[in-house]
Amino acid sequence: MSVQSHPSSLPNTASAAEASRRDELLRLILEPKQTQRPLNATWNAIVTIVAREIMRSLRDKALIIFSVIVPFLLIAGLEGPLQSNFGQAAGYSLTGFAATGMLAMTLYQYTLQGILSLVEDRENDFTQELLIAPVSRYALIFGKILGASLVALVQGLLVLLLGVFFFDFPLSPLGLLFLLPVALLICFSGGALGVLLISLFSSQRSANQVIPMLVFPQFFLAGSFAPMRNLPWYLDLLSKITPMRYAVDLLRNVVYSGQPEYGQVVLEAPWINLAIVCALTLACLIAGTLLFVRSERER
Q: Fewer CB within 10 Å, N- or C-terminus of the chain?
């Protein structure tokens, strides 16, 4: 008598593979070698979390494809008509202006979105198991932000290449020298804000509904696509309290350095933008980590 196998009885190979990878990651973090010093165990945990974030992103093919298509469509669709009609009056390339804003926005946004996976990990009790590891809580959050930042840097590189070859992206030798450290700082700024935001929500559903509503207006108030000069007082106030504004302007401080249109494009001096971005990053990182760890302990 033959036994017929039902599809419902077959194991979910994708879930099993994900569970296996998660268990392996936890084993590497929770069971460090006895000969490891505390510092080595901390870096081992950071590297392991970073590797996990990179592997998760590499498996998401749709994310890689849309990270190229969406910036191209936004710059061409939004700034193309503006350049044709107002580019000469502006005195500089509006498509190049939008390309620099898109680069900063990509670094900031994709790192923040990478941090949102902590909410999913929380619902799987993965973060709860991480928090009992003999590793600093700040090291775990740092590893998460670093992994998301490296993924965002790769996506930012794709946007940079699009800007250079298609959208008059301004780049001088001096700008190229400082572009990488500034890009990394912008990634950490977005990641720190992400940690603070997810600490305020208890479920992935609420986070996915509310956080985009908080982040999306920043794309326009930060001046990613349009210059933020001569605004009504209420829009000027909203723009000045937008964290992404200073990250976008700091990137333009770098890429437009030595360019004749520098004074028309940037809003603040480099040291002002740098100080504000660093202060916001540190404040969000400390407050977000403390709130996130406390919320996990109260579960």
A: N
Cβ neighbours for 190, distance < 8 A, ≥ 6 positions apart: 107, 108, 109, 110, 111, 112, 152, 244, 247
Residue 4 pLDDT level (bands cut at 50, 70, 90): very low
- In this structure, what DSSP letter does residue 133 have? S
Q: How far apart are CA 172 and CA 178, in angstroms?
A: 10
What is the sign, positive or negative, of the torsion defined by CA atoms of 63, 225, 200, 208?
Answer: negative
- For residues 229 and 73, give the distance between their C-alpha atoms in angstroms, rounded to a whole number: 25
pLDDT recorded at residue 200: 80
Structure tokens at 196: 């603070």
Q: Please answer whether residues 245 and 222 qualify as being in contact, where contact means their C-beta atoms are separated by less than 8 angstroms.
A: yes
Give the closest residue to 80 by CA, choosing from 70, 72, 91, 69: 72
Q: Please, where are the H alpha helices in the chain?
A: 13-30, 38-59, 61-74, 80-90, 94-115, 117-123, 126-131, 137-166, 173-198, 204-221, 233-240, 243-255, 262-265, 270-297
Residue 282 burial (CB count, 10 A): 13
DSSP letter string over 27-89? Answer: HHHHS--TT--HHHHHHHHHHHHHHHHHHHHHH-HHHHHHHHHHHHHHIIIIIHHHHHHHHHH
End-to-end Cα spacing for the chain: 51
For range 133-138, the mean pLDDT? 67
Average pLDDT value for residue range 284-294: 84
Span 201-246, pLDDT tens digits: 767 777 777 777 888 888 888 888 878 888 888 888 999 999 899 9
For residue 3, pLDDT beyond 60: no
Distance (Å, whole) CA 238 – CA 216: 13
Name, in order, each residue with C-beta under 8 angstroms of 24's C-beta and a sequence gap of 6 or more: none
Measured distance CA(253)–CA(178) in Å, rounded: 10
